[in-house]
Amino acid sequence: MARSINIALLGRGTVAQGVIKLLFKNQSLIEKRVGATLTLSKVLVRNTRKHREFKLPARLLVDTPEKILNDPKIDIVVELMGGYEPARSYILKAMEAGKDVVTANKALLAVHGEEIFTRAQSHGIDIGFEASVGGGIPIIRTLKEGLAGDRNRALYAILNGTCNYILTTMEDKGESFREALANAQQLGYAEADPSFDINGIDVAHKLAILIILAFGTRARYRDIYTEGIRQIGAMDISYARELGYRIKLLAIARHEDGAIDARVHPAMVPVDHPLALVRGAYNAIFIDGEALGPTMYFGQGAGMMPTATAVLADIIEIARNRIHGKSLRIPPLGYSMKSLGRFPMKTIDDLKTQYYLRFMVLDRPGVLAQISAILGHKGISIASVIQKEERKGKCVPVIIHTRAARERDLKDAISRINQLKVVRAKTVYIRVVAFA
Ligand code: NAP
Ligand code: HSE
Fold it and tell me: Which atom of ligand 1 lies closest to the CA of 79?
């Protein structure tokens, strides 16, 4: 008779429902792969009477966490509630009780990861967090294992399914930002508070986790320069295409001269780069390794079933460790906590890159001369200009693509340009990525 590993879920929302479905559907396959039965023993819910798509026997449902955290029969606690508290306290209590932990909670790990991973190490607890970054893409394992022999120079990634879905449906179907966001929520991609998605915070959380794995340094998510996609309009998406780019919300981390350049912002990606082809809720992580060169990992980055596969992979790995012994297990971050560095983070003002600028100006002679004089004064050269609409005396967009300029100079120039009487709205600027 195969041994049984008892699993408890904290939360019964989108991802948890997917995990429950997979645990039941793939039961015999999992048993063969693990050499043990995985038994869903308890599920913590706030309301045992709430209607859920996937029915469960009432005996599995509990509404107090102690029934899981104090139950000696539970081997693995899977946290799928989201948020900082009580998720943090429940995870720490589960570890104190000797239970291994799986979580998809990138917000929690980005902010309280140091405490959680240190506790896991000191208690000899396994912690799986594959679902926290890239949904169903096994990027955590890839960085920890597949790329362990190389030095990573840079990573460029699309890490938010909701934002990528919004940007691509605005482009493909002409949907408004609001409609596209509502659909992403309906499809189960968005966070409980979708401002985490559209303000870039969710991506910064994920990037903070990837930086540790990719570069072996601690990274505080608050030190990552972060912008979201709210300011991107349909006309920017269309002008970007005309200039040969697609707009993507990118997570960028580069290791240069002992420092990390880490940022999250909308970026103009050349249409022939593989990241430009990533559509809908798909994610991709493009990594440049010193010995390996470029590789890209692609797949569904959000949603019930893709995320559930990543959670289940962690459960399976931990169950195998429990069955076959933990002696060979890899530290959760691929490094012992003690050996992690603390590299300085570069500031965005020192960035040198090309820019896409959209000015909303009165259609009047001499306007372009005023703008280009301010740009020229700051040493910013113009590569091309687009002004199509003719609406004498009315407001029209003027698009300027600059040559590489220092961010500090660009911001100074824009704040001066925004004060001109002929400029009728805040200027939009989007960084153009050069994949070096
Ligand atoms: P969700 O649909 O909002 O589900 C969260 C669940 O947790 C709900 O069932 C909620 O209960 C329950 N919950 C919250 N606080 C609780 C508490 N104090 N006690 C008991 N239950 C509690 O969220 P989700 O989309 O499944 O996401 C779960 C986690 O996975 C989050 O950390 C998220 O960032 C992460 N994640 C999500 C995705 C995705 O595509 N959705 C992908 C990767 C990672 P009620 O049902 O009563 O509200
Ligand atoms: N809200 C997140 C996204 C879920 O849209 O990517 C996956 O982490």
Answer: 29
Q: How far is the CA of 302 from the centre of ligand 2 (A)?
A: 5
Our answer on whether the CB atom of 160 is closer than 6 Å to any ligand 2 atom is yes
Ligand nearest the Cα of residue 102 is 1
Give the residue among 5, 84, 73 at the shortest CA–CA distance from 37.
5
Over residues 76-124, the pLDDT tens digits come to 999 999 999 999 999 999 999 999 999 999 999 999 999 999 999 999 9
Ligand 2 mean position to 110 CA, how many Å?
Answer: 14
Give me the sign of the Cα torsion angle 91, 94, 95, 99: negative
* Threshold 0.85, pTM exceeds: yes
Q: How far is CA 278 from CA 101, 175, 196, 211, in A?
A: 32, 18, 21, 22
Which residue has the least CA distance to atom 7 on ligand 2? 302
Q: How far apart are alpha carbons 294 and 287 in whole angstroms?
A: 6
Superfamily (CATH) of domain 348-432? ACT domain (3.30.70.260)
Q: What is the mean pLDDT of the chain?
A: 95
- DSSP string for residues in 13-57: SHHHHHHHHHHHHTHHHHHHHHTEEEEEEEEE-S-TTS--SS---
- The SS3 of residue 1 is coil
The residue extents of the domains of the chain are 3-135+304-339, 139-300, 348-432
Among the bound ligands, name the one nearest to the CA of residue 165.
Answer: 2
How far apart CA 199 and CA 22 sit, in angstroms, is 32
Kindly give the number of the ligand 2 atom that is closest to the alpha carbon of 307.
7
Residues 407, 410, 413: CA angle, nearest 5 degrees: 150
Q: Indicate whether residue 202 lines ligand 2 (CB < 6 A).
A: yes
Ligand 1 atom 25, closest CA? 14
Topology of domain 3-135+304-339 in CATH is Rossmann fold (3.40.50)
Is the pLDDT confidence value at 328 over 80?
Answer: no
CB atoms inside a 10 Å sphere around CB 47: 10
Q: Do 346 and 28 contact (CB within 8 A), yes or no?
A: no
Could you give the CA distance from residue 116 to residue 163 in angstroms, rounded to a whole number? 29
Q: What is the CATH code for 139-300?
A: 3.30.360.10
Positions marked catalytic: 206
- If one residue of 106, 160, 209 were mutated to test the ligand 2 pocket, choosing by the most ligand atoms within 8 A of its CB, it would be 160
